[in-house]
Amino acid sequence: MRKQRPIGWLPTSLLLLGAFYCLLPVIWVLTAATKSRAELFTSQAFTPGTGLFGNLSDLSAYRDGIFWNWMANTALYAGGGALLATVVSSVAGYALAKYQFPGRGLIFTTLIGGILVPSVVLAVPQYLLLAKLGLADTYWAVLLPSILSPYSIYLARIYASAAIPDALLEAGRIDGASETRLLRVVAFPMMGPGMVTIFLFQFVAIWNNFLLPYIMLADDGKFPLTVGLYTLLVTGANQPALYNLVITGALLSIIPLIALFLTMQRYWRTDLSGGSVKS
Amino acid sequence: MRTKRLTIVMSALLVGALAAGCTSGEGEATPQETGPVDLTFWTWAPNMDKIAEVWNQAHPNIHVTVSKQAGGDESAAKFLTAAKAGNAPDLMQAEYQMLPSFVAAEAVADIKADVSAIKGEFSDGIWGLVTLGTDAVYGVPQDSGPMMLYYRTDLFTQYGVTVPKTWDEYAAAARAVHAKDKSVYLGGFSSKDPGWFAGLSQQAGGQWWSIAGDAWKVGINDTATKKVANYWGGLANEGVVDTQAQWTPEWNAALNDGKLLSWASAVWAPGVLSSNAPNGKGKWAIAPLPQWSASEQFSGFWGGSSIAVAAGSKHRKAAAEFTAWLNTDAKALDLLIKEAAVYPAAKKGQSLLTQAPDYFSNQSDFWKVATTVSSTARGFTFGPNVNVAYSAYKDAFDKAVQSKSSFTDALTTVHETTVADMKKSGFKLAS
């Protein structure tokens, strides 16, 4: 019989500490969201209040329920953007991994360089460009820049070169499959876990993105949650900031993310452990 | 005030992009309008869409679409970026301190020809905020923030303080209150709110910027402002005024729990108090600010905004017509008060305010006091780089408060930083 492994107290306590550190703000948001306007600054930080339902109905009533509009917009930007980005990245990564063509090294080096440029820096130039095209203040203004993600292409390339054996593609070619068919039937299914990773990364990145939609969009009916909640927070000098609504909104805005992670977790776990069992 | 780091990062990004940005081709006169026109309007005032709807009903030829924005410095940066991209809205809500930077960037139009008729609707001090002391008119004043002293009536009685008429009395009261209870302060000095300090300097007669011909004159460390800085520096170093940052949860709690007995603030403070200090309802009252000499009666402005017409607008005349209506028409002013909770800049609008805010139900003459104070507010001209001066203020006075060093030195730092920045940006400075 195997002897039970002793618990490593040091790593365990370090991890617990880390978990506590990460979860504390979330717990704060959770309790603060239950506080009414009057309770927010007057009661103890972690004592739950009594205003959760009041906050929820106030938030839903604010500007005729524009909050749910923002929620839907965010879902569209994050869902649509991440889906498109996943497709583009997978195809590009697959091509870079499995085809020899002139300039491949250069493209890949450029991509690595692109990873080093934070997307925040690009927001203003992208705005100027899209404004020239007349696309500023449209849904495309946020979706288009989200589609290209150097980091995702990099991930896809790494994953494709590791997960798809060349022999398999060769076999497909001998059997007479076209390159598109190979991509569809052989490459995509094998890249599945990698694509889930890319999708999740992009989804979270777009969900949390602030500066790009802030600059691109003028009409608050098109705002995502981040920018929308910001308008509640910075309301101009003569209006009190709607702290309790912002906090409740922030709480609601993380629920879809948590749900997404819980449902996609098993695909992801396959991916993260995938490399370790390669023969 | 809030989200400080974000402000800095975003301003840096946006301004950087502007410096590298393209040039916008504009300047041609607007042709006469025919047929219906569509105007877009960026504002952060609540319910402005409802007010615009009233206009749209009555004016089928000029349709105004409201885009609700966040307030603050970021919205100014966003507007400037949009203007550079040739994508600005027709109408923009512009805080008074941001308007000169819009003018310097040639992002707003001179609408003198269309709005000079309504000059008489505003006090000279407020009108000066949109002309910058020049012949041009760069916007129509919407709201203003005359400063007053908000104080807790019950606690003033408890600590035996009478409402200070002069700043000397205020200092004496501050010492007396703090001596009685070390956890309680009469008021606070905020190194985080340059707009607050600017308002107090206006009251003292400070003129931070002025235009002489085609050159700017900077007077941030003028005698009047030095006096103000020196006064607060003394109190802060003595430790008899609270120096914690405003707008923080701790500050809210201090207001709410009666640890701060008064707040020198602007007319929009009831909104802040009712949301951040709900326990004080019915216990606060207002009085004019303490004066520098007993024979004077002056105030200053903290906050307030105007509605400007973008230089890139294709319908300047229609836009000017709308902004004039919005800020001077009796019906529009009534809507501004009721829907947007604005303290209107127009004289006529101030007389429409009769019922005291709910929070001040104990002071039935609230608006009467406010109107009197408003008429004593001194004029002021903001410069083209208020953002630079304001962040220099925060840095320098933060340090001065921390290290209990001289506030006049900090003021000199603000002055020098501002002048250096204007020189670097190529503004002509009068010597």
Automatic annotation (TrEMBL), chain A:
Which residues are in the ABC transmembrane type-1 domain? Answer: 71-264
* SUPFAM superfamilies named in the record: MetI-like (SSF161098)
Under Gene3D superfamilies, the record lists: MetI-like
The terms describing its cellular component in GO are: plasma membrane
Q: Which domain of life is it from?
A: Bacteria
Task: Tell me the keywords, alphabetical order.
Answer: Cell membrane, Membrane, Transmembrane, Transmembrane helix, Transport
Instruction: Note the InterPro entries from the entry.
Output: MetI-like, MetI-like_sf
Tell me the compartments it is located in. Answer: Cell membrane
A GO BP entry is:
transmembrane transport
Membrane topology designation: Multi-pass membrane protein
Q: Which residues cross the membrane?
A: 7-30, 75-97, 106-127, 139-160, 181-207, 241-262
Similarity-based family:
Belongs to the binding-protein-dependent transport system permease family.
Q: Which PANTHER family did the record assign?
A: ABC TRANSPORTER PERMEASE PROTEIN MG189-RELATED (PTHR43744:SF12), ABC TRANSPORTER PERMEASE PROTEIN MG189-RELATED-RELATED (PTHR43744)
Q: What is this protein called?
A: Sugar ABC transporter permease
Species whose genome carries this gene: Rhizocola hellebori
Automatic annotation (TrEMBL), chain B:
Q: What is this protein called?
A: Sugar ABC transporter substrate-binding protein
- According to the record, the signal peptide region is 1-20
Key word Signal present: yes
Quote the PROSITE patterns the UniProt record gives. PROKAR_LIPOPROTEIN
- Which SUPFAM superfamilies has this protein been placed in? Periplasmic binding protein-like II
Ordered alphabetically, the record's keywords are: Cell membrane, Lipoprotein, Membrane, Palmitate, Signal
Tell me which species this is from: Rhizocola hellebori
Coiled coil residues, start to end: none
The protein's matches in InterPro entries, at most eight in alphabetical order, are given as: Bact_solute-bd_prot1, SBP
